[in-house]
Write a structure and sequence with these properties.
single chain; alpha+beta; Helicase, Ruva Protein, domain 3; 5-stranded antiparallel β-sheet; two-stranded antiparallel sheet; 16 helices; globular
């Protein structure tokens, strides 16, 4: 949704609830997939009681919401075989993604510089996140968010509680931002905009970075850039510190140092005692995530620092965080060569 449309909507209607009331009064709404649903009635009752929504007007939203079988099929699809790093890396570190990232950086250089100054997050990391999430805004999702979150919140029992929470956050953000919830689009899981924020992340971390009074991560790169930087800052990003360091390993006990999971629970000193070393290693008491990747030329051992852990707060995957880091490095190199 363009900011012009958002402003126009706010001008025409005094509030989000006013719009819903107007829709209900001026057009015949056909019974939708959630009309008469006891689950929806209970949810609407909670939103009315806890957050002051008008019950009948909110029911009008769910009369228009649609259950999407394609979403249920997508989220229920059997997990693929876990890829090794040598397979995963080429999916994201492509010439096209690097070239488009350099263009995006040049187009938004001033805003990226301001975000880096304000939050301490390097421009290349912000660009890499947006590049991996949506190819710089090209692929932000085609599902109405209300449909995605309703489908998963009411018709996908394994994670219904999580998606109902996100549905609640989505309705709150629509009211706060004075946007029509029926118009906002995202992924099949309800992730939104250039950075693919879930509604709870939007409300917690998204920022109005251009100062126009609205937060628009769908079509306003300024707000998307500032919001990514805000997210990382709030998740512990430390300006000027490295993300990862490559390690050499010797001896039979090296693999004992590998971290189970993502949390940085090993110290550099503990790893050193197990045969890990690096010319760029931080001080011995520094907690790190120690991991091994299967690269093109064999095993690679790495130590992830605080900023690496911050990237995993965006997506809880070591390989995702490494893809972001290495794409950011390639963006710097490619930009310097142009």
């Amino acid at each position: 949704m363009s900011m012009q449309v958002m402003r126009g909507w706010a001008t025409r209607h005094a509030s989000w609830m006013g719009l819903i009331g107007l829709l209900g009064a001026t057009q015949e709404v056909q019974a939708g997939d959630y009309d008469g649903s006891p689950q929806v009635a209970e949810f609407v009752g909670e939103m009315t009681r806890d957050y002051g929504f008008a019950g009948e007007q909110l029911m009008g939203v769910f009369r228009e919401a649609q259950k999407k079988q394609a979403i249920l099929d997508a989220i229920s699809r059997p997990a693929e075989r876990v890829k090794q790093w040598k397979e995963y890396r080429p999916m994201f570190l492509t010439d096209a993604r690097v070239a488009r990232g350099v263009d995006f950086w040049r187009q938004h250089e001033a805003v990226l510089a301001r975000a880096e100054q304000e939050y301490g997050v390097p421009a290349q990391v912000i660009v890499a996140i947006i590049g991996i999430e949506t190819f710089y805004g090209r692929n932000t999702g085609s599902y109405r968010v209300i449909d995605a979150l309703s489908t998963l919140g009411f018709d996908y029992p394994p994670r219904a509680e999580f998606f109902r929470k996100e549905l609640r956050e989505f309705l709150l953000l629509a009211r706060e931002e004075q946007v029509d919830p029926m118009t906002l689009k995202g992924s099949y899981a309800g992730a939104m905009g250039l950075p693919q924020f879930m509604p709870s992340s939007f409300r917690a971390y998204a920022v109005d970075f251009d100062g126009d009074g609205h937060i628009n991560i769908w079509s306003n790169p300024d707000d998307a850039i500032g919001s990514v930087a805000s997210y990382f800052k709030r998740h512990g990003w430390v300006g000027g510190e490295p993300v990862v360091v490559r390690a050499d390993v010797t001896g039979e006990r090296a693999d004992e140092g590998l971290t189970q999971g993502i949390d940085p629970v090993k110290t550099v000193g503990e790893l050193r005692a197990l045969g890990w070393s690096s010319q760029n290693a931080p001080r011995d008491d520094m907690p790190v995530t120690a991991f091994r990747l299967e690269g093109e030329n064999g095993p690679e051992y790495w130590m992830g620092l605080k900023n690496f852990y911050a990237i995993t707060r965006y997506n809880r995957s070591v390989m995702y965080a490494m893809a972001v880091h290495q794409l950011s490095d390639e963006l710097v190199q490619a930009r310097g060569n142009k």
